[in-house]
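Hi support team,

I've been running sequence recovery on a batch of backbones for a student project. Most finish fine, but this one hangs at about 90% for roughly twenty minutes before it completes. I'm not sure whether the input is malformed or the queue is just slow. I've pasted the structure tokens below so you can try to reproduce it. Let me know if you need the job ID as well.

Thanks,
M.K.
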């Protein structure tokens, strides 16, 4: 006797397409924002980003307020008692040959909140002069930056002379660098 043929599919063949439809329906409902229970909906992510931005802004505002109220790192000229330094002790010069074609000078200006930097670099009978503004920062200020092409002065021992003018006072500092 032959076994009877059944028109019914085995259970695994009926559940697989049904499970696929359930997954597709869940994805559609989550992306369509029909239900907010979907844990990774765009609305939830947008709200979290807005909250994080607001918290970050508040932290920055609190930091600025605490510094301003203490007066420690606030711009001294805004407090009405700004007197720029008269000694070169607050000026640090760091000349460095970046590569074979240029030399840069980094400055650190303690006690300055504004002013103008004038740099003269000499090598033998050649010299170059550049100017830059003082950029105020809470820890220390700096000159806006200096870069000198090696081709303008050639190799040798370069003499750097930085003059900072602020609040009617002029202060100078010197440094040297062997350039190859």
């Amino acid at each position: 006797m032959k076994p009877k043929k059944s028109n019914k599919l085995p259970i695994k063949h009926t559940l697989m397409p049904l499970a696929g439809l359930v997954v597709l329906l869940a994805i559609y409902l989550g992306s369509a924002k029909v239900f907010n229970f979907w844990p990774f909906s765009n609305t939830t992510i947008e709200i979290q980003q807005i909250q994080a931005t607001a918290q970050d802004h508040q932290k920055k505002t609190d930091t600025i307020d605490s510094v301003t109220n203490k007066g420690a790192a606030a711009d001294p000229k805004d407090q009405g008692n700004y007197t720029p330094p008269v000694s070169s002790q607050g000026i640090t010069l760091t000349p460095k040959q970046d590569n074979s074609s240029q030399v840069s000078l980094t400055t650190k200006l303690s006690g300055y909140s504004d002013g103008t930097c004038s740099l003269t670099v000499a090598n033998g009978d050649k010299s170059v002069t550049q100017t830059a503004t003082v950029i105020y920062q809470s820890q220390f200020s700096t000159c806006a930056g200096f870069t000198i092409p090696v081709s303008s002065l050639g190799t040798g021992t370069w003499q750097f002379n930085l003059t900072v003018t602020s609040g009617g006072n002029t202060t100078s500092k010197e440094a040297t660098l062997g350039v190859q």
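--
Follow-up from support: It reproduced on our side and the slowdown came from queue contention, not your input. DSSP finds three helices and eight strands in the chain. No action needed from you.
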